[in-house]
Amino acid sequence: MLILAAALSVASAQEALPDLHAPRRPAVECAEHVRDDDARRDCLEDLLDNAEGGLAAAIAAAHDEAAEIDADFPGFANATDRLNAAHAAWFAYRDAECARRASLLLMGEDGEELALDCRIALTRARAAELLDN
Length: 133
Fold this sequence. Notes:
Order of helices and strands: HHHHH
Structural class: mainly alpha
Number of strands: 0
Shape: elongated
Number of domains: 1
Number of helices: 5
C-alpha cells in the first residue's frame, strides 16, 4: 500500500511539472533587451516578420493542396475559395483579438508590445495548424 501511495505521489508531481518543450512567449524570447525599449521592439518585429514568413509558406502549401482538391473535384469542393475566405477571416480575428488583449493593459507602448507578442504567437500557431491539416 505504501508503494502504491508513493507511486501515485510521484505520478501527480510529474503531472504538475511545466512542459519544458513548450514554445516560449515572444516577449520572453526578446527579454535580453528588457532595458532597451527600441531593441526589444525591433526584436519583436523581427519575430513577427519570421512568423509571417512561416505563415506565407504554410498558406502556399495549403493553396497547393486546395488546388489539387479543386482539380480532382471541379466545381464541387471549392477548396481554394474556402481557404482564401478562412485565411482572410483568420487575419481579421488575429488583429482584433490582439488589439483586445492590448487594450486590457491601457499602457501605451507596453500595450503595443503585448499586441506584437500576441500577433507573433497566433501567427506561429496558425502556420502550424495549416501544416498539420
